[in-house]
Recover the amino acids of this structure.
């Protein structure tokens, strides 16, 4: 099972997604500070992958704290973990993973690394299993000869392995149910063109790329059955934060009678938020929009608006798939019954 995150010989290694598809470069991460930086800089990205990386970051933090104050390593941890939790704001998997790791601190005797590493590896493995389960559940919803569109990268690169939205597409394709896979290029960071296309082609799945703005025409021409996306955070009522452009796709899908599926593990649900109204939606440096590969492409002096996530109301979602099951037309009561 391909994973963009590896723990090898006491070291965290991350596939540098900024370099794909041109180069496959693995970065060695030795400290929790490097781990926070790698998440902020999008060496690793995608909500579940960010969470798993943070879990290994907690292992590195514990190693650093134990080396400095063996007796009092626990007391030194909160400052480092606060910094880690702030590496990116929208993917709730980041805080979920740190909190999950923290629940194991009390039981540790002696050096914390072995016990915490085992826990981080469990989080990583559980994510892969959840993706496989969601893949099978989501594929059941697809008709024969399905034509599907995905946005951003919600694949192996964004998770512990296999993917959420791409897990459903992988599973559906393996069952012979999918006749056409479309992927939005996903401006401004090109997750679709660079990452989704790379990992699908690597696994022998054909993919057709389109400019984000071409999705409307695809739907108008009747060339789509399902839009399938992942999520960075899902509120208790089913509102979804995901890659910028997701909301537009959901509106278009409803207008054209195309079905809309969100695929996300339990760790992406934030039941502390009643709705998406208070969701933190990250804005990133405008240079991501104005430049391409460090070359300015926009007219000199143009200002930028670069929100990297948007909010899709639950009312626009036909199916929400988690490892706990499928929720059709999600709302607060159905989510509480399955997720909480
Ligand atoms: O900015 P990114 O690349 O981290 O955004 C990722 C997404 O929006 C994904 O769709 C989401 O995290 C789900 S990944 C399984």
């Amino acid at each position: 099972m391909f994973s963009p995150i590896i723990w090898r010989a006491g070291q965290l290694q991350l596939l540098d997604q900024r370099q794909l598809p041109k180069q496959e470069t693995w970065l060695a991460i030795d400290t929790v500070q490097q781990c926070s930086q790698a998440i902020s800089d999008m060496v690793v990205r995608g909500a579940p992958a960010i969470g798993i990386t943070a879990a290994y970051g907690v292992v590195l933090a514990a190693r650093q704290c134990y080396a400095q104050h063996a007796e009092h390593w626990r007391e030194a941890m909160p400052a480092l973990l606060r910094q880690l939790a702030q590496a990116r704001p929208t993917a709730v998997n980041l805080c979920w993973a740190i909190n999950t790791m923290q629940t194991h601190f009390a039981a540790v005797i002696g050096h914390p690394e072995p016990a915490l590493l085992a826990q981080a590896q469990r989080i990583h493995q559980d994510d892969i299993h959840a993706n496989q389960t969601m893949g099978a559940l989501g594929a059941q919803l697809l008709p024969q000869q399905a034509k599907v569109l995905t946005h951003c990268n919600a694949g192996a690169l964004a998770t512990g392995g296999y993917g959420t939205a791409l897990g459903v597409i992988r599973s559906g394709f393996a069952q012979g149910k999918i006749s056409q896979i479309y992927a939005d290029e996903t401006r401004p960071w090109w997750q679709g063109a660079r990452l989704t296309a790379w990992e699908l082609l690597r696994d022998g799945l054909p993919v057709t790329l389109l400019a984000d703005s071409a999705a409307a025409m695809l739907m108008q021409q009747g060339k789509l059955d399902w839009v399938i996306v992942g999520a960075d955070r899902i509120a208790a009522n089913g509102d979804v934060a995901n890659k910028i452009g997701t909301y537009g796709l959901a509106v278009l899908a409803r207008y054209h009678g195309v079905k809309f599926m969100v695929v996300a593990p339990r760790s992406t649900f934030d039941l502390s938020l009643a709705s998406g109204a208070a969701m933190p939606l990250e804005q990133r440096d405008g240079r991501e929009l104005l430049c391409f590969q460090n070359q300015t492409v926009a007219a000199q002096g143009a200002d930028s608006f670069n929100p990297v996530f948007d909010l899709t109301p639950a009312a626009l979602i036909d199916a929400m798939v988690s490892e706990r099951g499928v929720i059709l037309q999600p709302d607060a009561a159905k989510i509480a019954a399955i997720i909480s």
Summary: The chain has two domains: 5-129, 132-339. The pocket of MRU is lined by residues 45-48, 91, 152, 154, 158-159, 164, 191, 229-232, 242-243, 308 (CB under 6 Å).
